């Protein structure tokens, strides 16, 4: 109970308050390296929040998630650890260097196969309505036996 109250106050102060003050200082001091480090932190922290929001129902099953989140924020925030820079260089930059066409093609294949399954299901429903469920069962049995025969005959031809 006490930890929950402390966590609700400490995490926003640590994750948002300190970087906000440091960002203002870096902007006012015109520090390029400080601004770069803080921008990296904000990008990575935004992705952590996005991840948490996307998987909130899954994360509720893990009672240790608040502890882990606090450790992640500390690792990202403390400059000696360089967590934000590490995550940015090894995860985000590598993800940005991926050709977007690869992702588009992968997504299109998944959509196409999903569309084919939906079309097959609709055709099967139409077939059952026209001819009946028994005819569909006979057709499936015939196809199963004929495919087994084709597999056996192909196997015996090769060996």
How would you sum up this structure, described in words?
The protein is an all-alpha fold and 159 residues long. 88% of the residues lie in helices and 0% in strands. It contains seven helices and no strands. It has helices spanning 2-29, 32-54, 56-59, 65-77, 83-96, 100-131, 133-158. The radius of gyration is 28 Å and the shape is elongated. The N and C termini lie far apart (71 Å). The relative contact order is 0.06. The mean pLDDT is 76.
In short:
The protein has seven helices and no strands. By secondary structure, it is mostly helical.
Q: Which SSEs are present, and which pair or pack?
A:
Elements: H1 2-29, H2 32-54, H3 56-59, H4 65-77, H5 83-96, H6 100-131, H7 133-158
Helix pairs in contact: 1-2, 1-4, 2-5, 4-5, 6-7
Rg from alpha-carbon coordinates: 28 Å
How would you classify the quaternary structure? single chain
Largest sheet: none
Give the overall shape, derived from the CA principal axes: elongated
Question: Considering DSSP H and I runs of 4 or more, what fraction of the residues is helical?
Answer: over 70%
Distance between the termini: 71 Å
E-strand count: 0
Order of helices and strands: HHHHHHH
Give the mean pLDDT. 76
- The number of helical elements comes to 7
Portion in beta strands: under 5%
| Estimated structural class | mainly alpha
Low-pLDDT residue intervals, each spanning 5 or more residues: none
């Amino acid at each position: 109970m006490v930890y929950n109250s402390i966590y609700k106050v400490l995490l926003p102060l640590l994750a948002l308050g300190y970087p906000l003050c440091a960002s203002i200082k870096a902007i006012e001091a015109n520090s390029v390296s400080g601004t770069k480090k803080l921008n990296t932190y904000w990008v990575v922290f935004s992705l952590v929040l996005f991840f948490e929001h996307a998987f909130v129902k899954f994360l509720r099953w893990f009672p240790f998630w608040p502890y882990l989140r606090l450790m992640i924020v500390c690792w990202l925030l403390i400059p000696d650890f360089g967590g934000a820079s590490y995550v940015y260089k090894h995860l985000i930059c590598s993800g940005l260097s991926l050709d977007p066409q690869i992702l588009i093609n992968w997504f299109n294949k998944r959509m196409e196969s999903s569309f084919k399954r939906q079309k097959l299901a609709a055709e099967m429903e139409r077939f059952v309505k026209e001819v009946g469920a028994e005819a569909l069962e006979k057709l499936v049995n015939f196809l199963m036996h004929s495919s087994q025969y084709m597999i056996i005959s192909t196997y015996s031809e090769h060996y």
